[in-house]
Amino acid sequence: MYGLKQLKNINDARVALFKKTYKFLDNDHTFRLPKKGIDGSALPPCKSELYEHFLRSCYIAQIWSHAHLKVPITDEPSNYGWVEIDNRYELKWFSGSQLPTSINQITIQHEKDTSNSDSESETEGDESNTSQSGNRCLLCKHEKPNVKRNASTMEILE
Questions:
Q1: Are 23 and 29 in contact (CB under 8 A)?
Q2: Region (Disordered) spans which residues (predicted)?
Q3: Cα 49 vs. chain centroid, distance in angstroms?
């Protein structure tokens, strides 16, 4: 998929292409952009966008497959990735929410390591828990430094 033969999930392929394009500097925890221009639209669509596009493509193919009939039989476009607004059909770009509802949905929260053996056995099978403290970025899995911020202004507190 998208030149990444080992990946079967579209969203995983998007992450791999993003990581390939945007490099992460280990020394100062910042992203480095390549010197040439970056076009964010070059990333493939996410799974929900691709699904709606697939539905629209199926609808158009259905219209053409019945084009030889005197009275073509078609289903409602609203069942195939279109939305009717003011007696006009417009694209339904994706289903679901556009943005995460919380920052916790895009970062991994790790609990501090405890020496209690009971807590270690509970988290043994969970890959998201590690013995390190701090947050990990879901996109590139790097360890982010523990930075305290003012919740209302997002200013860094020292």
A1: no
A2: 109-135
A3: 11
Contacts of 95 (CB under 8 A, 6+ apart): 48, 51, 52
Burial 11-40 (b: 16+ CB within 10 A, else e): eebbbbbeeeeeeeeeeeeeeeeeeeeeee
* Pairing of β 82-85 and β 134-137: unpaired
CA 81 to chain CA centroid, Å, is 20
- Neighbouring residues of 19: CB distance < 8 A, sequence distance ≥ 6: 139, 140
Tell me the pLDDT tens digit for each residue of 28-52: 555 565 556 666 777 788 888 888 8
